[in-house]
Amino acid sequence: MLQNFHHSSQPRNIKLEKQSGLPSVKLLEEMMKKSMMTAGALVELPFGDDAQAFNLTVKREQGSWLWMLYHDDGFNSGLEWSHVTHSADQIYTLISNSNLGFMMSKPAQKALPTSTQQQNAAAPADTGSVFKARQGSLQGNLKNIQIGNLFQSINMNQMNGILEIVAPSNKAQVYFVEGNPVHAALRGAEGTEAMIQLQAWEEGEFTFFDERVNVNKTIDRGLIGLLMEGAKYIDHSKYLTQSKLSHESFLIPVNDTDIEQALLANGVECKLSDVIAIYKLIDGAKTWGEILRDIELAKSEWVPVMFNLLSCGLVRISTAPGKMRQNIVENRMDWRTVQSFEQSLCRADSGLYTHPALLYFLAQEWFKYESLQVPFSLLAFGFATKFDTPQLQVPFRSKAIEELREKVFRAKHKYDLLCHFGAFSYAMLLPMSNRKSADRQAETIAEICSTIRVSEDYDPSRIEFRGGIANVPEDCRSLDEVLALVEGGLGFRAT
Q1: Hey, which residues does 294 pair with through a beta bridge?
Q2: Pairing of strands 42-48, 14-15
Q3: Residue of 229, 226, 177, 237 whose CA lies nearest to 201
Q4: Pairing verdict, β 42-48 and 64-72
Q5: Phi–psi pair at 244, nearest 5 degrees
Q6: Which domain holds residue 74?
Q7: Using omega within 30 degrees of 0 as the cis cutoff, is the peptide bond preceding 473 cis?
């Protein structure tokens, strides 16, 4: 479903009173509350002294919060870091561990009460102290317990807190109040949709944190109903996997079959209008990855549709197109020159656009948006070590880059651009795309990367996929925000 573009009614910024010292955890939580109370608002907190000024901002983004810290010392100004998290404690630790010179000479002003630990951390004698990471009360891996059983265990024990799950190509959070899920979020989905999709996960390290939950309620259904719907979703998803449906698969329509009769005879429950809408997108020339980008349904809706199309014999899967795209004979267009110029913008070792080329294309998309209100999206992705401090970016080996290029090229539109992003990460620029389309492409990228052996130097269990998404105008109103948002999800700056 296409999102409305709110050009004329952008939410106002909320600027708080300047603080002379570190903001407390309680103040950070107040910023989160204000951001939630005014949908889409950017909450700003200036702090610092005459020598160094800082500005901390927070904005609600896709079930979590995007935090950015800017500095200004009178000579230079810019973004210090950006981070996506629901935890005020993590942001407090980030600020405390940043090199904020004024904190070494001035104690924090207590605009709001702070804990003893926070007051001590702000004092000069304790500036070298290390903050303890959150400890979970329940830990394990989904290889050893079905996620439905995990949900039921939390429910029976009436637990309060956050269940975090880190899978090879995705991350998820589920918020519980007295054992009942009230909010869930993963890449491309939140609320009930996220809960249904989560039940198909069979791998991922999970941790439950006992803590007070403070989120908007996005789940109104009981756990039993969610588990029942999830069971059907799992069955249909497994059938698609067993049928070897992949993003590189070509789908061939079987034209001599009556759709309604076939569904009445063997189909499972789903809307006929959804079946017809997807069937019309299948022309025998496009891959499933290309088709998926144009489907305006949630995953829990298109999975049973594809189950019906395949199990009822309305569509078949092929490794080659059923028909070729029409080639127009052109005498004046010199495609060799186009290809030669394109190669000059690409790195010879990878065949992907360089980082400077990405910035140029990104600027062109911004100019189109300014003039014509044409939306666009940027995805950034890569791998990082899980347990190192700080985390290290993991470079793709040459064979992995080749595999990435081949698989992505078969699952994208011709005008999408696959580029380098900094030294060891990658990006996709998606012209004329809304946020939902970008989310679907991000899921495709994550699934493709999960099938690639990225590096021979790192144990796959010790690295994780990282990614960030930004859409103009649904997420951002400037190119700086676009880059900060994707870098926040990636966890690294593109330098």
Answers
A1: none
A2: parallel
A3: 237
A4: unpaired
A5: 65, 40
A6: 14-126
A7: yes
